[in-house]
Design brief:
Elements (H helix, E strand, L loop, with lengths): L2 E3 L12 E7 L10 E6 L3 E6 L5 E6 L11 E5 L5 E6 L4 E6 L4 E7 L12 E6 L2 E9 L2 E6 L4 E2 L29 E7 L5 E8 L3 E8 H6 L3 H4 L4 E6 L6 E3 L4 E6 L8 H4 L7 E6 L5 E5 L20 E6 L2 E6 L4 E5 L4 E6 L6 E3 L4 E4 L10 E5 L5
Antiparallel strand pairs: 1-28, 2-3, 3-4, 4-5, 6-7, 7-8, 8-9, 10-11, 11-12, 12-13, 14-15, 15-16, 16-17, 18-19, 19-20, 20-21, 22-23, 23-24, 24-25, 26-27, 27-28
């Protein structure tokens, strides 16, 4: 059996009831400091050591209208020093310095259909600066220098040229108007490219990519820049994805046969699929078919439908899992499934630890669950 449970020590002191966790990778990794960052039901952030079970309360979050009964996202900088927290489908977010235990930024996106897609949040290191990519309006993203608190993409928000309420004192930027709701963001491992799983009216999802370097020199890059590629038009948005190389991202989606040309799929059909894209060129470079569909109905009342699934990559393997169901392991070079289990139900894959991590249960309320997949024997 390629999967086996890994017993983790009890958490001490108890961090309380955990509602969200995220991998915490520190700048100088230490085998005895394999960490996750967790949010509890008092809206406190805690560091949890998977090796020893030791816990440390970091800070009390303070985010307007944070609903701890609804999905919460924790987004962490590449060096593990800074975290952004929001309701996944919320209007507000905050950024925290995990080293000093202090709030750095309070954020907001406007209230126009904010509850329909993930709050866009992602970190990148560019020119030795920690930069936050974040949504500021439904159709606008900005870059902010985290520690200086300064915007790197100052510009007037474009107004549709049919909007008679436009302030004529402002320059006409209607040529840059973007009719697109930004969603879940993901920055490439080399910090060069960003992928956005947003949507447009119909509704339908459109996944886009563009260059972060270009964006720093051209403030309109996220609207209509020369590096933008529309990668995939799908039935859903906020799709599970994972980077498998500096320019290559795998995306799991469900395709509507009316949205693709039959000749583009040939014998592959139009069932749910995982597609590999080159974010730099927009090229489709691989397809895994016979992929299970994920459910989009949220188990939480009042939360907009979204993918009840997760994805991660390690070495040449891609992992996909669905809420309460099965976990698949795919071999990227051969585009084939090499293992399936119904016994592993993770919240995330912790790549440095090579562990799938799950939240505590009623049977084991004081320890995280963990499973390992033997990559060497696959």
């Amino acid at each position: 059996m390629s999967f086996y449970p890994v017993p983790l020590p009890e958490l001490h002191p108890s961090p309380g009831t955990l509602i969200a966790i995220q991998e915490l990778t520190e700048e100088s990794p230490d085998p005895e400091r394999i960490m996750v960052l967790a949010l509890n039901d008092y809206a406190e952030l805690w560091k949890l050591n998977l090796h020893t079970g030791a816990t440390e309360r970091m800070l009390q979050t303070n985010i307007p209208d944070l609903n701890l009964l609804h999905p919460v996202q924790i987004v962490i900088s590449p060096d593990g020093a800074v975290a952004a927290v929001s309701n996944t489908y919320g209007q507000y977010a905050a950024v925290y310095d995990l080293l000093d235990g202090k709030e750095i930024l309070q954020l907001s996106r406007d209230d126009y259909h904010y509850d329909v897609s993930t709050y866009p949040l992602s970190f990148a290191y560019i020119d030795q600066r920690l930069i936050l990519v974040h949504g500021t309006e439904w159709n606008r993203l900005d870059l902010t220098d985290v520690f200086r608190g300064t915007s790197l993409t100052v510009r007037h928000t474009p107004i549709h040229n049919n909007d008679s309420s436009q302030n004529t004192d402002e320059p006409d930027t209607s040529e840059h108007y973007l009719d697109y709701f930004h969603g879940k963001l993901s920055v490439s491992p080399d910090q060069k490219w960003i992928v956005d799983s947003g949507w447009v009216w119909a509704p339908l999802g459109i996944t886009r990519s563009w260059s972060l370097d270009n964006w720093l020199s051209h403030v309109w890059e996220s609207e209509d820049g020369s590096s933008i590629h529309d990668l995939w038009q799908t039935m859903d948005w906020d799709l599970p994805s994972a980077w498998i190389a500096p320019h290559t991202i795998a995306i799991w989606g469900q395709v509507d046969e009316e949205m693709v040309d039959e000749e583009d799929w040939e014998e592959e059909g139009v069932s749910p699929a995982i597609i590999f894209f080159n974010a730099q060129t927009g090229e489709r470079i691989g397809v895994i078919t016979s992929v299970p569909a994920f459910n989009t109905t949220s188990p939480v009342e009042g939360v907009f439908p979204h993918a009840q699934a997760g994805m991660a990559a390690d070495e040449d393997k891609l992992f996909t899992w669905r809420h309460g169901l099965d976990l698949h392991v795919w071999n990227c070079p051969t585009l084939t499934c090499v293992a399936i289990t119904t016994k592993v139900h993770p919240q995330l894959y912790h790549r440095p630890a090579k562990l799938f991590i799950g939240l505590p249960t009623e049977d084991a309320p004081h320890r995280l669950l963990a499973w390992r997949y033997d990559l060497d024997k696959a």
